[in-house]
Amino acid sequence: MSYIKQMVVAVIGAVMMMTPAFAQDRYDTQKVVYHINYNGGEDDKAYRGALRNIQNHINAVGAENLDIKVVLHGNGVALLKSALSNDLLQNNVTTLKSQNVAFHICNNTLKGRKISYEADLFDVFEEDIVPSGVAELSHLQQQGYTYIKP
User: What is the pLDDT of residues 47-101, one digit of tens each?
Assistant: First the structure.
């Protein structure tokens, strides 16, 4: 097992143990879409903050009580581009995905910026690509997802 995978397993175990019992009584099942379309800034600080917010949400409600989608378009797609060379972002993305967080990437952005999801982005597959990031946000909200822009 690689070092990153070992760390992910350790983090997930720790997170599950940290979820307060009262949180499970307070929060019902939630469907949430996180919207990221901005630059990460120096050291990807904004991206790391957004991913930390998502993890904090999971810690409070419990992964089993959440259906989380992250929609990336425009400058937000750079989160997964930066993750190719940023081990911390890679670990954050991997940890969230292991808790069933889905990342949806805008095809319009990929085409417009000539980005190959296979070569230029971390851990993206064909099924992660959506036709339009903004249309996906509307679609998910129509399905009852709460919109959050961290």
Answer: 999 999 999 999 999 999 999 999 999 999 999 999 999 999 999 999 999 999 9
CATH number of the domain to which 130 belongs? 3.40.1260.10
Query: Which of 91, 86, 93, 87 minimizes the C-alpha distance to 72?
Result: 93
Query: E strands along the chain, which residues?
Result: 30-36, 66-72, 102-106, 129-130, 146-148
* Structural domain total, the chain: 1
Give the residue numbers spanning the domain of 15.
3-148
Tell whether the model's pLDDT for residue 117 goes beyond 90: yes
For tokens 């399905």, name the residue: 143
Tell me the backbone φ, ψ of residue 104, rounded to 5 degrees.
Answer: -110, 125
